[in-house]
Amino acid sequence: MHVQVGIIGAGPGGLMLARLLHLNGISCVVLESRARAYVETRVRAGLLEQGSVDLMTETGMDERMRREWMVHDGTEYIAGGERYRVDMWDLIKRRIYIYGQQEVVKDMIAVNLAAGVPIHFEAEAREIGCLDTQKPFIRYEKDGAEATLTCDYVAGCDGFHGISRRAIPDAIRKDYDRVYPFGWLGILADAPPTLPELIYCQNEERGFALFTMRSTKVSRCYLQVPPDEDEANWSDDRIWNELSLRLGKHEGIALSTGKITQKSVTAMRSFVSEPMRHGRLFIAGDAAHIVPPTGAKGMNLAISDVYVLSKALIDFYRNGSTACFDRYTETCLRRIWGAQHFSWWMTSMMHNMPGDNPFDRKRQIAELRTVLGSRAGRTLLAENYSGLPLEM
Ligand code: RFL
Ligand code: PHB
User: Fold this and answer.
1) Which residue among 69, 99, 212 has the greatest number of ligand 2 atoms within 8 angstroms of its CB, and so is best to mutate?
2) 227/246 same-domain check
3) Contact yes or no for 300/352 (Cβ under 8 A)
4) Rounded Cα distance, 29 and 149, in Å
5) Are 60 and 35 in contact (CB under 8 A)?
6) Domain shared by 107 and 197, yes or no
7) Residue span of the structural domain in which 238 resides
8) Beta carbons of 9 and 37 less than 8 angstroms apart
9) Domain check: are 312 and 376 in the same one?
10) Considering the domain boundaries, does residue 88 fall inside one?
11) Which residues line ligand 2 (CB under 6 A)?
12) Quick check: helix, strand or coil at residue 295?
């Protein structure tokens, strides 16, 4: 079988790309190694920037999202025992949106399939080749048999552990990496959100906690833990107790608790690989970069990468121009490095670094007070948190 674009990975990146290409008359196939039920229930991100929401809307994938999302004008912070609010709407007339990544993925799958875009689940790409010829191929395995897809271009949207990035030869690939000495224990609970807005909490003695949500009935909370922590060490009581201690006592805030329905530990890293193009292969999203989740950028970056890629492919198929292909890496990297900086900054401001001495702790609290206590500081935070322009 031959299509114009072979897409590896049915995450938010691959599925948004499929939709954008289909709407512009470009044929594609999506290969996904996991089962549909698995990708539709994988609990991950929850925060959409305005640019991602706009793209969901323009591509007609926004119907359920608009009914179920939670729209936030501001975000709460607790640092040095004091409470702050970053009012994004007041500062910069921007908002953020809470809608679970698995819901985004469900909507994207439904709309793509209804439009006739082929998504092959349990189809694992094993090899990508002939990238410097007119006819690259993706060799994949489905139902125990091998198959080959040929295409004009390959889009590697297969996440951090996929095969695409590794198809770019080591000799031309440069990786930038930082691994953090902590991870996040994330939980879902049948408990209304503690506050209607997200609370980012830096506790000098105990570390970071984040209180977010999925609906008016479901909380999502995170705790800073050692990177190799086993979630089995965390009973429900221990989790609620720790969340309560990190939150501290503040007027008008009462921790909301309930049955914990899911828990898992995620390691944290910052990672960028470049170039993001090699011959007729383009990589996008987590395949090319990882951010620590403190800035809530991963899913949004995957969506902005494929937006840039779709424009380049549309320009090529309409006008025969390859100029945008040549600029793909550079265009994406400007935004990626902006998000990398912000995610690193938020992470280092909000977490307790093992090995920090008392001076470092005091300096960290002073930094948080400087940023959160000034309108200029809050504006800088709000501009980055609510999302940089889709194309920079
Ligand atoms: P994905 O979502 O990992 O999708 C890649 C897909 O490729 C498939 N695949 C293959 N398919 C075929 N053949 C192969 N050989 C394949 N190898 C892999 C995989 O099965 C998968 O379905 O990548 P994509 O599309 O680039 O999207 C990236 C996002 O998923 C990720 O950045 C976010 O989840 C990160 N993230 C957050 N991002 C946000 O924008 N806002 C947030 O609030 C946010 N919070 C988070 C997060 C990630 C977290 N964890 C668990 C890492 C919170 C957490 C805790
Ligand atoms: C989430 O809702 O899961 C979420 C929100 C903000 C973050 C990370 C995760 O920074």
Assistant:
1) 212
2) yes
3) no
4) 9
5) no
6) no
7) 181-267+355-386
8) no
9) no
10) no
11) 45-47, 98, 198, 212, 220, 293-294, 296
12) helix
Do 254 and 135 belong together in one domain?
no
What average pLDDT does this structure show over 165-169? Answer: 97
Indicate if 146 and 200 belong to the same structural domain: no
Q: Whose CA is nearest to atom 4 of ligand 2?
A: 46
Query: For residues 348 and 57, is the Cβ–Cβ distance under 8 A?
Result: no
Q: Per-residue pLDDT tens for 124-142?
A: 999 999 999 999 999 999 9
- Supply the pLDDT for residue 83: 96
Residue of 47, 72, 98, 344 to test ligand 2 pocket, by largest number of atoms within 8 Å of CB? 47
Q: How far apart are CA 311 and CA 179, in angstroms?
A: 33
Atom of ligand 1 nearest to the CA of 105: 2
Alpha-carbon distance of 241 to 244, in angstroms, equals 5
Domain CATH number, residue 128: 3.50.50.60
Please give the tally of structural domains in the chain: 2
Considering the domain boundaries, does residue 391 fall inside one? Answer: no
- In this structure, the residue with its CA closest to atom 46 of ligand 1 is 45
Bridge pairing between strands 145-156 and 2-8 = parallel
Cβ of 12 less than 6 Å from ligand 1:
yes
Task: Give percent of the chain with pLDDT exceeding 90.
Answer: 98
Catalytic machinery residues: 72, 200, 293, 297, 385
Is 387's C-beta closer than 6 angstroms to any atom of ligand 1? no
Tell me the pLDDT tens digit for each residue of 10-53. Answer: 999 999 999 999 999 999 999 999 999 999 999 888 999 999 99
In a domain, 134, yes or no: yes
pTM value > 0.90: yes
- The residue whose C-alpha atom lies closest to atom 51 belonging to ligand 1 is 44
